[in-house]
Amino acid sequence: MPVVVVRHDQPIAEELEGARPGLSVVDADTRADALAVLPDADAFVINPTNWDDEYLDGLQPGTWVQATSTGYAAFPLEAFEERDIVFTNAVGNFGPPVADHAFALILALARGVPACLDQQRDRRWDRAVGDALVDLQGRTLTVVGLGDVGESVVRRALGFDMAVYGTKRDPDSYGGRLPDDRVLPADDLHEVLPETDVLVLAVPLTDGTRGLVDDDALSALPDSALLVNVARGPVVDTEALLAALDAGELAGAGLDVFEAEPLPESSPLWDRDEVVVTPHVAGRSRNFVGRFVELFLTNYDRRTADEAYVNRIV
């Protein structure tokens, strides 16, 4: 009987119960629970936050690890390959919800939603808040990373009648909505920063993207620009971001991801009026579990039929 171990805070295990004949589902609430049952597992469902390299000792050759995330920087890919462990991610599951969230952050900043919520709590009516609101139409948005999420951001930005640029490691492989002259190599990002009104980060965390948005990048942006990060926290140098906000060199930031998560209570980001903080939920929605279970079962069926996996990394 195939056994899948699920280590996740969402009810994925519950949804998988009975989804396929003979499939046994174990819901591992803790790291210890997972370690106890992994030696008998055929598949392991886990998110990067819960990954621990101790799990490697329990995974048998041929075991399949299915990440619930698109990003996989937390997973030991070389060790998987050495131990003959299959690894797949969930790319394709997050484009629309993450792009929706990116625009929720953009609109919150551009349309003064936090200030209006403060007024609502105080039962105060002051239309002067409208004097600083920003129209998106005609503004320039640059997306860093034109994968599934980045392309979903592009489609929404075009719907707002914005001018849009995007960066991609290999522009020749791009097949989305932007014309060729709006798709730049990743190394050319700084060329468009001076005309960028909204900078959206949608890249995976790699050695090349860690600290990508640093003092130089923030200085190149107009003082009126907005920064939105729905990628990974370390893509932004937090100290550089705080310095730019303190100096008035950036109008605001919408952040769903952070260098340290959970965001420490001591972080100055919590207290800034020009920063909107959300707790790494851009990929979440009421449809999250259903989307993931559909992907998992697709790969489960392919594994059973000895066919190629979807989104296989290792």
Automatic annotation (TrEMBL):
Family annotation (PANTHER family): 2-HACID_DH_C DOMAIN-CONTAINING PROTEIN, D-ISOMER SPECIFIC 2-HYDROXYACID DEHYDROGENASE NAD-BINDING DOMAIN-CONTAINING PROTEIN
Keyword annotations of the record: NAD, Oxidoreductase
Domain of life per record: Archaea
Molecular function terms from GO: NAD binding; oxidoreductase activity, acting on the CH-OH group of donors, NAD or NADP as acceptor
Matching CDD domains: 2-Hacid_dh_1
Record-given protein name: D-2-hydroxyacid dehydrogenase
Keyword Oxidoreductase in annotation: yes
Domain D-isomer specific 2-hydroxyacid dehydrogenase NAD-binding: 103-282
Gene3D superfamilies reported for this sequence: NAD(P)-binding Rossmann-like Domain (3.40.50.720)
